[in-house]
Amino acid sequence: MLIIFCEKYYIHVLTCILKMKKAIYSIIFVTFFSACGNSGNRGTNSNNHAPISKLATLGWITGEWYMDSPEGRLLEVWQKVSDTLLSGYSIMLSGKGDTLFSETMKLVQRRDTLWYIPTVSDQNNGQEVPFKEKAYSASEVIFENPMHDFPQRIIYRKGSDSTLFARIEGKKAGAEKGEDFPYKRLK
Predict the structure, then answer these.
(1) Looking at the 3D structure of the chain, how many domains does it have?
(2) Containing domain of residue 90, as a range?
(3) Are residues 88 and 23 in the same domain?
(4) In terms of domains, do 62 and 153 share one?
(5) Nearest to 105 by CA among 150, 159, 51, 143
(6) Beta bridge partners of residue 91, listed in sequence order
(7) Residue 80 and residue 147 in one domain
(8) Which of 29, 48, 81, 163 is 20 to 30 A removed from 68 (C-alpha atoms)?
(9) Between the CA of residue 176 and those of 11, 118, 130, what are the distances in Å?
(10) Nearest to 82 by CA among 43, 47, 56
(11) Is 10 helix (H, G, I), strand (E, B) or coil?
(12) Which of 150-177 are b and which e, b meaning 16 or more Cβ less than 10 Å from the residue's Cβ?
């Protein structure tokens, strides 16, 4: 009887040891592969592995902006559509209220790159013209498309809460040209 008791106890102890080893190996396995799975997520949101939104730091562009000039009033309006898309339009109105110029614009984040994509009425056969992010910070973004006739660069820079600075530049007829747009907030 003592031998049977000892054998049962021995088997019980062995079973417990095997269960503990299995648990320890499971913990090591899970920990190892969890660490390996997260090693390449720099610059991403750890919850869903999506790129961190650069557009979130460019929220200062959203709103309604205006600039008065001798030709009339230029309005530029931006709104957030999603974490990866801002949508906007620009319109130049004469003093009489006639539309002199209009365009629609998109600021799109594709992976970790921003794209400025305007569509100007009566230009480029109504096609979008993509400008790729060349430089980015929380207070300035520069887009470039060296293949476009003019402009080749588009710059947005944060001013105060009530000002926005935009600039277009590049070569036109073989000479460097640029045009500044010092906007004030309308709303």
Answers:
(1) 2
(2) 55-185
(3) no
(4) yes
(5) 143
(6) 75, 102
(7) yes
(8) 81
(9) 88, 21, 21
(10) 56
(11) helix
(12) ebbbbbbebeeeeebebbbbbeeeeeee
Q: From CA 185, how far away is CA 7, in angstroms rounded?
A: 86
Residue with tokens 């747009």: 181
Is position 50 within any domain? no
Model pLDDT for residues 79-129, shown as the tens digit of each residue: 999 999 999 999 999 999 999 999 999 999 999 999 999 999 888 888 999
Task: Give the list of residues 6+ apart from residue 138 with CB closer than 8 angstroms, or none.
Answer: 57, 58, 158
Q: Which range among 18-22, 24-28, 121-125, 170-174 shows the weakest confidence by mean pLDDT?
A: 24-28
C-alpha 11/C-alpha 3 separation (Å) is: 12
pLDDT digits (tens, 9 = 90+) for 31-60: 333 334 433 433 444 444 455 689 999 999
Reading the block at residue 117, the tokens are 């994509």
Distances (CA, A) of 86 to 12, 28, 40, 58, 112: 65, 45, 28, 10, 15
Which pTM does this prediction carry? Answer: 0.72
Q: Does residue 104 sit within a domain?
A: yes
Model confidence pLDDT, tens digit, residues 7-18: 454 454 444 444
Distance of CA 59 to the CA centre of its chain: 10
What's the pLDDT score for residue 64? Answer: 97
Q: In the prediction, which pLDDT does 137 show? A: 95
- Identity of the residue numbered 19: K
